[in-house]
Each structure stands twice: as structure tokens, then as C-alpha cells.
Amino acid sequence: MLDSPETPLKALIRNRRPGHSLDAPFYVSPEIFAADMELIFGRHWIYVGVEPDVPEPGDAMTVDIGRYSVIVVRDDDMGIQAFHNVCRHRGARILHDEKTTVGNIVCRYHAWTYDLSGALIHAEHMGADFDRTCHGLKRVHVRSLQGLIFLCLAEEPPEDFDEMAREMGPYIAPHDIANTKIAFESDIIEQGNWKLAMENNRECYHCAGNHPELTVPLFAYGFGFAPDEMDEQDRAQAERYACLVRDSHADWEGSGLPSREIERLDSRITGFRTERLPLDGAGEAHTLDTKRASRKLLGQFTRANHGALSFWTQPNSWHHFMSDHIVTFCVMPVDAGTTRVRTKWLVHKDAVEGVDYDLANLTEVWSATNAQDSALVGYAQQGARSPAYEPGRYSPHTEFLVEKFCRWYVGRMAAHLGR
């Protein structure tokens, strides 16, 4: 499909109508899904987890990205290494558990043994002319952005990761991911294409009618609004919100917390966006009472009412950083109509469940929101399968960031296909 001069995919990309949702095949076609896995998930930086997933030397996790399985391991020098989960002997999968601890990496089949740097250190009965140094595990590019782990399966990864890290590092660093732990994680299998899961995240047009828990700590005017539909009272409230954002940014940045928006969603190969925004009520956390969920604050925070820092990356993640906890989200495609969304809640590594935080209170808002979003994505997938489906127009006031996601996606596909 990818080799002909004018494939159906190339035609769909060329004819994509800006400001509208994608044509149905982008959501339902197995062939386009295969292209997504090759050209998007196979060639870009993919968020897969956090350094607390592998906190100590020998701690390892396996990550599935399409047909690939990758080992992420903490080495003896506390660095993060990543390797294809394929033995260099006869190709058996080596690690089978999602999380484990190893002294060395040992294949169960014939006991070929690799150290934590990926070097082959033991292979019996291979003959005197066998050179172990030529048979180490195949490396996968891995980078940590202040504790957020990204992988790239391509031989040559996009070169702009350092630019993202330079801009985002000061925003994330105060939350000190290295000194957090995973309090809870959950997976939801959504019955929809991965792009629908991402599009749903990139707007809050749907929030007021579908997310009663999430909208408690959020300001309504943070969802976007149509100025030409507002009466005088609405305009006054919108202006008060704008003033609150400006004043909060000045306050937080005066305290050493970068807060102003950086938006690179469709202008970079490694697209991203960030901004710290105030929260409603007590202004402390994504909880039903809007107060912090953990008594132990992160990093050097001395007060909890610093709002929430959002960080989005293309193609597959979003994150919320608060003074007391962090929530991260990783989207992984399963097939054309199925997507896994993994959520992790991080608290200070010394926080004690039942003493410093209540797990139900910590997870309640986003557990409910994830379930609601899963249903909505399923509805969208059902609609995309219908012969009656046609691309619909995005709201320029509340869905402009969805358009940026689609523009990034179509642009990256076109670049790789040589439009």
C-alpha cells in the first residue's frame, strides 16, 4: 500500500479537509492502522512510562508497541537502557512479565545471558570462533525527560527531542519525578481507534455534559468558549478568568515555576504543548474537594495551590502535574478499533497509603473520567463505521487543538509517504 505513487492513503491525505474530522478509513481501516504503526509509532518518540517504573538497578519492564516488545531496564549505574525483547540466538522472547527484577537478562530457551548493558556474557556450546561481542541485545533509543520515559523504534530518531527537553525541563523538574512512586495504575481498553482517543483528549467541548467529576476542579472558561455567543455576564466572567490566569502565571513564575503556555503541537516533529492553569475551589488538585490528595508535597513545593501543569505530547500522551501528585496517560494502539489507555498516579516516594493519602480520593476523578471517555470514544468509533459518516466541522473555539493533532498526524504521514 505504501509503495504506489498514489495509494488510497495518499489520496486521503491529499484530500483531507482542514478544520474537519478525518475521513472514516483513518479510524476503521486495518491498512491505515498498519501504516500508523509503521510511520507514526515506528518513527517518533513514544511515551511509555516513568522512571519509578524501574526505580532500582535490575528493575525492568516490558513495553509492547504494535508487533514490537521492548525491555526497559535500570542499569548498575542508575541509567535507563532499552532493548528489543528478542534473544540474539534464535529470536525467542526473553522477558515475559510486564514488571520484574533481574540480576542479568536471561533467555529461558537456551540460557543465553545478557548483562544490564545488553552485552552477551554467557552462551554455552557456541564454539571457539564465536564472538559474543557481536551478539548483544539490539538497542532501542530511549530518553528520559525529567523522569518521563520515551522510546523510538526507528534507526534514526527525530532529532528535536533535545529541544523539547530544553523547553519542558524547567516546567517538569520542580515536581521531582525521580523521588515519586506509582501509587496506582490502571488500564482501560477503549473500543475505538487510537486517534479518536487522542482527539477526545485534545478538547473539553464534551466535558460539561459528560464529566461531572472532572469539571469540579476545572474552570468552565478553561474549556474554550464562543465570544459571539456570550452575554454581558458571560463576558465579564471570561475576563475574570483571563485575569486569574495572568495573575496566577505571574505569581507562580515569581516563585520559580514556569507556567506560561508553550504550544508546539503541529509545528514540530516531536509535537508538544504545556501550560500551568489555576484550579477552581481550593485550587490544589484534581479531587472532588479540590484539595490536595496527599499530605506530602512533591519536590520543593511548600504550598499546594499551584494549580495544575498540563503537558501533552504527540502522538500518544498527556500528563497533569500538581504540587502533591502527578497523573500520566499513555495511549497504545491495539488494532484499528481498539486502544489501550494506561493511567498512572504518582505520589511522593515517602507517602504512606492510608496515612498521607487515601487511594480512592487520589484516583476518583480520573478513574471516573477515563470510564466516561472510554464510552465516548466507543460511540465515535461506532459512528465512523457507519456508511452515513462524513467528516464533521470542528468548533474553532473549543476544538482547535483537535485540529492541531490531526494536522500533525496528516503532516507526519505525508512527510513519510513522500507526498
TrEMBL record:
Entry cofactors: Fe cation
Gene3D superfamilies: Naphthalene 1,2-dioxygenase Alpha Subunit, Chain A, domain 1, Rieske [2Fe-2S] iron-sulphur domain
Any coiled-coil regions, as ranges: none
Residue ranges annotated for the Rieske domain, each copy included: 47-151
Pfam families: Rieske (PF00355), Ring_hydroxyl_A (PF00848)
InterPro entries: Rieske_2Fe-2S, Rieske_2Fe-2S_sf, Ring_hydroxy_dOase_asu_C_dom, Rng_hydr_dOase-A
Protein name: Rieske 2Fe-2S family protein
Species of origin: Kaistia defluvii
